[in-house]
Amino acid sequence: MKKISTYLIIILSLSVIILGFKHYESQSQKKDLQNSIDHAFKSQIYNVIGDLSVKLDDYTYKFVISSVSNAATLAELTSYEEMNDDLDISLQDLFVKLREGKPEDLTTSRIDELREIFHIMIQNTANPDATDRLMQIAN
User: Membrane-crossing residues (predicted)?
Assistant: First the structure.
């Protein structure tokens, strides 16, 4: 009987050690995945800035719309969303506004303002002022 309980304790101890290792490994993978999502989101923000930095025609306007759409889709999955709940909503609203508009609707001053807002978002992605300004533009 004593042998059985000793084996049982050894098996349980090994199980706890393996479980602890697997938990650590999954947390590490979760962190890597979150970093990857955050990086992809910032890449889309950089794309928006780049698209807004060239002469806007129908072709580049579609790139702006695509980049904003991609950023809006990723925003909800980022770690920044926890700090700024309006991040995904503001980008989605901007996407809808751009999709329903035309390149001519974006004046030079509006393009400069959008570029400035996205630069702010690159520096501090969870900045609530930037998302508030995006929501004002979208509405």
Answer: 6-24
